[in-house]
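Sample 3 of the quickstart, ligand magnesium ion:
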Amino acid sequence: MKALILNSGLGSRMGVLTSEHPKCMTEVSPSETILSRQLNQLVDAEIQDVVMTTGLFDGVLERYCQSLDLPLRIRFVKNPVYDKTNYIYSIHCARELLRDDDILLMHGDLVFENEVLDLLLAAPGSGMAVSSTLPLPEKDFKAVVADGFVQKVGTGFFGEGAMAAQALYKLEKADWLRWLDKIAEYCEAGNTGVYAENALNDLDGAANVRAVDVRDLLCAEIDNPDDLAVVSARLREVESRTVYMTFSTDILHGGHIAIIRKAARLGRLVVGVLSDEAVSAYKRYPLVPASERRKLFEGIAGVRKVVEQRTLSYRENLEKYRPDIVVHGDDWCTGFQKPVRDEVVSILAGYGGRLVEFPHSDAPEYREMEARARAELSLPDLRRARLRRTLEMKGFATAMEAHSGITGLIVEKTKVYQDGGTRQFDAMWVSSLCDSTAKGKPDIELVDMTSRFRTIDDIMEVTTKPIIFDGDTGGLTEHFVYTVRSLERMGVSMVIIEDKTGLKKNSLFGTEVAQTQDSIENFSAKIRAGKKAQKTKDFMICARIESLILERGMEDALERAFAFAAAGADAIMIHSRKKDPSEIFEFIEKFRAKDASTPIVLVPTSFNAVTEEEFKERGANIVIYANQLTRTGFPAMQNAARTILEHHRAKECDAMCMSIKDIITLIPEE
Ligand code: SPV
Ligand code: MG
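Result:
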């Protein structure tokens, strides 16, 4: 696209202001003239070719343009009879330079804010800036608009469909050439004293010029010193606007820089960086922590200030900073972010702010970057460290049972959008009960480590979330040290071992079966050996206390907890099979009275009426949903098998089945 700027006029109504230079060189702010502002706007819009018509002071104008030193190719065309003709003839003089491209046509005395140009350039086809909100000007241009298209332009239209209009056009080449040829007809007939729009009007709408409504955004020409005062004041107002934009990304790419540039052109840009907690709840665990992500944005030209946005909801920051404009990609008009957008719109409406939405760019190279970031999260070193990071970040994490690739994917991908926020599980629990059950075996440490590791491998291959491994009793200390190293090497974040010995039985049997608790000394030695064997600082060993399960009392549980923490356990799991959570609450309270920091892990299979919020409030740090996928999945399978047997066919089973499409979306092809 080429820009055509009409600067042949005398500007005589400006008085002394145009005694030594053309009107376009009039200052509209301490740092810019009408022309330098227009040219900079063209640079921002990546329009490099400019044709400028000149008249009186052509030399001054050319030298001035050169002094601006902008990355533009400007070609000047002098209208030799500038004082006897209107700009219709200036355009005609430049016609040979204007036949090969789309044209952005503007008068040289026009001042418009950046958003006006954005709207015009984003509009499909050809367009002209009009306003549906401004009163019709007495003397200036009006456009007659029908069905969204400009039919006529001139100063004398006040009737139906008339709208205030400015001589700012984007014209597709075919539409422009129609107008240009009409202009030629006028000029060749000696009709050079009229507006170029007279020629446009003769086309009766055939130039397909869409009316692009710029409402009351600044878009005004400067004809006299009064206009100059008004426009300069409006410009100060425009430039002091604050613009707010939120980023959750940890990979900055060209698309982000482009949108920041665009947003910064609307005012003073404040960037809200979404907290780690909000990012990991709504998207994925951030590769770069919020403190570093803030620094990334601080270094970008156009960003005036960087602040933290703690939640996906903008409310807190909108109320605090009251930006004039919020900028976002238009991808949030539908889908899970819609409630967030709706809230933004209503808060902005409350104080007169405005939402500007840019077209969302989903370029394949950016999608690939995101895919690479996700892949990185699945690598052992990053994955292993992430449970600790999550605990540091939020003080609390949830884990859901997974016993295969597909259940891992369910834990990885299931999200719930609630109250303008997102919820998902932080980690996966590789349960001995569910791993054994999936293999049709009892939960008695019968499934050997090689097989358990195979399960971990299957899950790891398709997921990124951190893994907590149910290590049963940990086996012999001599064996446990190898288990620790293997798990660590694989990228598992935590192993939980229970203080039992001999033939292990599932804890939920309680005292119904014979179970032997290990001595504090033996189990502490096992923990110490495990801690000594591990190579990284991120891997965690959690000691699981079975005293309440085996009805040995609270004192025993607490004594063990303190002893195991002293032996080096990174976390304590206290288990109970009672529905009533009292003993769990009592344990947490008494443990926390002496130990404020060692994370407490709970498996609320029986005491399941308590919410995560309450557990957290009371001082717990990890809640594991240990077996719910297994316990819901297998009955569904049994039901399907029975139904087919009963009906001698599969039709009745259909309603229970997941659609093939859902399966395909759950399991993406690489
Ligand atoms: C498991 O899920 O295997 C557990 C938790 O160890 S529990 O079944 O409650 O013992
Ligand atoms: Mg178990």
